[in-house]
């Protein structure tokens, strides 16, 4: 039992050390006409096609940064699990759709595109 937990314990401790020394970062990309994201105070405000802006408040230890030019959202923090969870929650607001690719996606994510109607070229 102890041997099987050794690798997991080592990885958890390593993630804690890396998190405190350099931190973790997850980058999301906003695609779509009129879609944008901005940071006010510490909150992330998403304008992604709804009738109202979506406001996301960061939990303790997480910070947001946006780049309007490249339309990217950077989620940074010291807890690897928390950074990934917050990034997943942001993506869940407007996941990318397969026809036009509009939505919020991870930077390294590939969206499988569908052709749409057969009659349209």
Task: Describe this protein's structure.
- By secondary structure, the protein is an alpha+beta fold.
- It has one domain (2-106): Outer Surface Protein A, domain 3, CATH 3.90.930.
- Helices cover 28% and strands 31% of the residues.
- The strands form 2 sheets. Strands 5-6-1-7 form a 4-stranded antiparallel beta sheet, covered by helices on one side. Strands 2-3-4 form a 3-stranded antiparallel beta sheet, with no helix packed on it.
- A hairpin with a 6-residue loop joins strand 3 (43-47) and strand 4 (54-56).
- The longest helix is centred in the N-terminal third of the chain and has 20 residues, at 2-21.
- The chain starts with a helix and ends in a 15-residue tail after the last strand.
- The mean pLDDT is 92.
Describe this protein with a few key phrases.
single chain; 121 residues; alpha+beta; Outer Surface Protein A, domain 3; 3-stranded antiparallel β-sheet; 2 helices; 7 strands
In short:
By secondary structure, the protein is of the alpha+beta class. Helix content is 28%, strand content 31%.
- The tally of helices reads 2
Number of strands: 7
**CATH fold assignment:** Outer Surface Protein A, domain 3
Q: Uncertain spans, ≥5 residues at pLDDT below 50?
A: none
- What portion of residues belong to β-strands? 25-35%
Shape: globular
């Amino acid at each position: 039992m102890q041997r099987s937990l050794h690798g997991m314990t080592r990885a958890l401790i390593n993630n804690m050390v890396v998190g405190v020394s350099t931190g973790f970062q997850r980058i999301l990309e906003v695609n779509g006409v009129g879609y944008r994201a901005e940071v006010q105070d510490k909150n992330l405000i998403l304008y992604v096609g709804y009738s109202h802006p979506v406001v996301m408040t960061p939990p303790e230890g997480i910070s947001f940064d946006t780049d309007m030019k490249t339309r990217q959202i950077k989620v940074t923090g010291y807890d690897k699990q928390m950074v990934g969870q917050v990034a997943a929650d942001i993506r869940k607001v407007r996941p990318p759709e397969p026809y036009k690719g509009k939505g919020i996606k991870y930077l390294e994510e590939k969206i499988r595109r569908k052709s749409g109607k057969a009659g349209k070229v």
